[in-house]
Amino acid sequence: MTEYTSDVSRQERPDLATTIDALKGVTEDSLSATMFYGLSGRTQTEFEQLRPHWEKLSSIIRQRLLRRMVEVSEMDFEMDYGAVGFYSLDDPDPSIREIAIELLWEDESSRLQSRLESLAVNDPDDRVRAKALIHLGRFILLGELGNIQENAMRRAQAVAIAALQDTKQPV
């Protein structure tokens, strides 16, 4: 891992204004721990304030940021990028939607399950549909373990089975 990821856990979460300033100044070579910590743990409402600055970033920078967030969240389970991840599921760039699915790897909410089901069926990009199907497998397992309601598990299974049986789809 790179140095900034080890610094992330040593910082207090910056306020919204500091996080916005960090987003305004980001380049491909300037991904700071302040930004990663500032984006963690934000509510949807807080992210709405950050959104205009997020949208101004190039697709390449958003991809790099999201990939790093995946790495950081795997190293530090207290880092929560749910608001960024959910927002990025609707990004016009399919690579960003794919990474967003990975970023939400520990989310077991029915909200995410519904979004994954929708992406698995409706996303125009084959890779995004495939990634959504892979991550729906987690909800099938959760159902088998009794950690989610059986009807939720059955919905995920139905989406996966339909995708497997659809000979028109490359997924």
Structure explained in plain terms:
It is built from ten helices and no strands. With 171 residues, the protein is mostly helical. The chain is globular and about 50 Å long. Mean pLDDT is 90; it is low at 1-9.
Averaged pLDDT, please?
Answer: 90
> What is the H-and-E element order?
HHHHHHHHHH
User: What's the total number of strands?
Assistant: 0
User: Main beta sheet, described?
Assistant: none
Structural class: mainly alpha
Q: What coarse outline follows from CA principal-axis ratios?
A: globular
The helix content, as a percent range, equals 55-70%
Head-to-tail CA distance between termini: 32 Å
In the predicted model, the low-confidence regions spanning at least 5 consecutive residues are 1-9
The number of helices is 10
The percentage of residues in β strands lies in: under 5%
C-alpha Rg, in Å?
17 Å
List keywords for this structure.
about 170 residues, single chain, disordered N terminus
